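Sample pair:
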Amino acid sequence: MLFLVSFSFNRVAICTFVRNIWMVSDRYDYLHDFDGNGLPDMPLITRTYPFNYGYPYIAFQDSLGFFTCERVSSRWASYSLTSGDLNDDSLYDMIYIGSGTLNLLLNNGDRTFTLSTVSLGSEINHLAIRDTDTGAVIFATDESGGLYMYDYVSASSVRLNTTCKEGLSVEDINGDGWYDVICGSSNWMNSGHIYYQLNTGSGWSSLVSITTSPACYHGIKAVDINADGMLDVVSCAGSTVYVWYNEGGSPMAFHERSYSTGSSSGCNTCEITVADFDCDGDGDILWSAGLNGGSPSVVLLENDNSAPYPNFIAHTIEPTSYTNYGIAAGLVDDDDLPDIVVGLGSTLYVFYNTTPADDSFCNPFGEDEELGSEEFVVRDGRITFSKDEEFAVYSADGRLLMRGRGRALNLPKGLVFVKFGGKVKAVITPSRR
């Protein structure tokens, strides 16, 4: 077991807006290179609560550490956003909501976007986009109760349930090769439960609750916290972070543990995300207080890698109470240490990760140098290399899954990154439908 005594971050203001910043996303992959200059950019919504309007912006990174923040649409925004390639042109598009409307911004490649709109539900909030065998699919929860799935190619939608209101994660939670949904019936005003709904390939299962007691659960993330090969579920209710450890089975069984952030924040619009901030091979949990604030307002829970259920050590990142609706992690600069992106009030900040950790085998979202097909073969979940090398395999959220030396290994389920000598050399993406 390895864990560091303290983290260190360099807090840098990027842009200040008239309205507060909202960064409510599905925490899947927040940072993208929207303008094609090789540097990650940061999308966001500005909005003044409780007034139901604002606008979408992107903080474009002109050169390393220097940003220009530009409004990318004149159509108003009310809540959340997500990003992905809708029309398969290798450009990242942006999706954001305006009450009962999906606003689709198709990327023109020159920092301009073309807007189209889709009517969906009545109070759409949390969004996720996934690339499937048939094209891009958007998932959305509805505050009035319900989960929708919109197929971009066929321009058709279906309502998957009438229960979920807020909180959304779309992952293959049972490992059968199909994207499933994890969502909540609660919000910051009303208690509820967290459920999963399985994609069977020919339809969708009924909802199954994973929670033991109702609470005002808000942000949701499905990720393997204890490195046992199964996706766990992470959420928060006020200042408490919950993890439901997946113990497998059919139906799946979950073991609930709770962890305190030490914040004064009550039942609120808390959000979470997960990344390996200290490069020790496990997932740390990043928490933000939400609209009503609380002190501290940003906390990092460090995973101590205990088995079978980790303990978490709370580290204060932002001690002051701020309105901060949503939080993200990603590689903003040129190292492999995950940085923190958050709006504190009306100012966008990057907390650059300066923790004294070895990042040579850390987060995979750095240089991508794919091996030629003659150098590796992937078949039936196994990768074989043409020569004996030291390797490391990472999950999509940047956690180390395995490392070693050899000419072959069995791959874990899900998208993985294979590194040789500190460089990403193979990106293996299984079919997801």
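Residues 241 and 259 are 5 Å apart (CA to CA).
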